[in-house]
């Protein structure tokens, strides 16, 4: 049986998930070629910095919402049956303040903070929080069972599943997407190249998508544990600052965030922002630090810090690009621009990309028979 030679550019969650799904078809012979791979920590490489979790933000009826809806069953199954994937169930608590409506965070979280969201029908135990149980200052809230991923463990798990299915990984940097067609490990030209380069699609020759831009995120990883995930609609520290807490599976620590700074490429943590984040998170969940021997509430000095981190979410005006292209005679499938929802939309968007790959391969075979 003739094989399909496929090169996937990009080693983040989107590239790896695309490779994993494609590798289930044994006729696909796949090379993942990327500058960064799981185990790396670089501001250019967004995936290991993610929380990550499942907190739907797609607008009702949108492709984004469909991708999230199609990803949840996979994550739910992995959390139940594949502990090695680094995913566990965690209660998610969402708080909303009406005064945050115009903030970057509230716009980002618009559907998440909706009292009657579409996702209430797919996640377990969705329920509104009674008014009398809301913390002071919040207008409404909800809670449901979600999942939190240990991003580095999960990325490594995706690599392991790909390798079981024969996927070859190699490090490479391309100045032009056409060059990727020559990177297949067989030494032959690839039939299809899948572009999963995220923010780098802004600079990759042949693509140079000027709709791409970063939304900078900054987090603190701590050893302190929390009983649930927490997310809020906004803060009093600025319209692009956020408040969220989540505890990664498998001893991955607790993530304190954050911010949503559009068009900001700064790679170094801002110490003043870090202090604001920690103060917000302690106020949001006092159990994070608990009380001292005298019964007094502890402050941020009781946080046991592992590291500070910065990641650049790969946003795209108009939403992700999942479509076919032909560049310099090379059949290309684009799958990039997922912003801050790459994990929670991954299986949905990558399934669509796989369908496009299959269509491109079928058309090539039909042309060859003419």
UniProtKB/TrEMBL annotation:
GO BP of this protein: D-amino acid catabolic process
Binding site for D-dopa: 340
InterPro entries cross-referenced by the UniProt entry: DAO (IPR023209), FAD-dep_OxRdtase (IPR006076)
Domain of life: Eukaryota
Coiled-coil parts of chain: none
Keyword DNA damage on entry: no
Cofactor: FAD
Record-level GO cellular component terms: cytoplasm
FAD dependent oxidoreductase domain: residues covered: 5-350
One GO MF term: FAD binding
Gene3D superfamilies assigned to the protein according to its UniProt record, in alphabetical order: D-Amino Acid Oxidase, subunit A, domain 2 (3.30.9.10), NAD(P)-binding Rossmann-like Domain (3.40.50.720)
UniProt keyword list: FAD, Flavoprotein, Oxidoreductase
Amino-acid positions noted as binding FAD in the UniProt annotation, renumbered to this chain: 197
UniProt keyword Flavoprotein present: yes
PANTHER family cross-referenced by the UniProt entry: D-AMINO ACID OXIDASE, D-AMINO ACID OXIDASE (AFU_ORTHOLOGUE AFUA_5G11290)
Stated family: Belongs to the DAMOX/DASOX family.
Protein name as catalogued: D-amino acid oxidase
Organism: Coccidioides immitis (strain RS) (Valley fever fungus)
């Amino acid at each position: 049986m003739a094989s399909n030679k496929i090169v996937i550019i990009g080693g983040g969650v989107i590239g790896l998930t695309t490779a994993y799904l494609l590798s289930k078809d044994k006729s696909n012979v796949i090379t993942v070629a990327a500058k960064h791979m799981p185990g790396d920590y670089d501001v250019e490489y967004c995936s290991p910095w993610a929380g990550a979790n499942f907190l739907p933000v797609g607008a009702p009826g949108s492709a984004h919402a469909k991708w999230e809806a199609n990803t949840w069953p996979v994550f739910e199954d992995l959390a139940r049956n594949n502990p090695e994937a680094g995913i566990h169930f965690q209660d998610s608590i969402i708080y909303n303040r009406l005064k945050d409506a115009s903030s970057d965070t509230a716009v980002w979280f618009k559907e998440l903070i909706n009292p009657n969201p579409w996702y209430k029908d797919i996640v377990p135990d969705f329920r509104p929080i009674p008014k009398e149980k809301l913390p002071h200052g919040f207008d409404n809230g909800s809670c449901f069972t979600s999942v939190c991923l240990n991003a580095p463990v999960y990325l490594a798990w995706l690599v392991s599943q790909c390798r079981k299915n024969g996927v070859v990984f190699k490090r490479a940097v391309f100045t032009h997407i056409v060059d990727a067609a020559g990177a297949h490990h067989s030494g032959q030209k690839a039939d299809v190249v899948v572009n999963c380069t995220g923010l780098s699609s802004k600079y990759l020759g042949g693509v140079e998508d000027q709709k791409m831009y970063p939304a900078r995120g900054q987090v603190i990883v701590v050893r302190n544990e929390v009983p649930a995930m927490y997310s809020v609609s906004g803060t009093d520290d600025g319209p692009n600052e956020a408040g969220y807490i989540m505890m990664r599976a498998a001893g991955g620590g607790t993530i304190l965030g954050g911010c949503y700074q559009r068009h900001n490429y700064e790679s170094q943590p801002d110490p003043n922002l870090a202090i604001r984040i920690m103060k917000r998170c302690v106020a949001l969940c006092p159990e994070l630090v608990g009380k001292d021997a005298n019964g007094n509430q502890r402050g941020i000095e009781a946080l046991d810090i592992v590291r500070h981190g910065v990641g650049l979410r790969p946003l795209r005006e108009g939403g992700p690009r999942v479509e076919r292209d032909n560049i310099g005679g090379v059949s290309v499938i684009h799958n990039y621009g997922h912003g801050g929802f790459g994990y929670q939309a991954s299986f949905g968007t990558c399934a669509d990309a796989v369908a496009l790959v299959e269509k491109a391969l079928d058309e090539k075979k039909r042309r060859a028979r003419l």
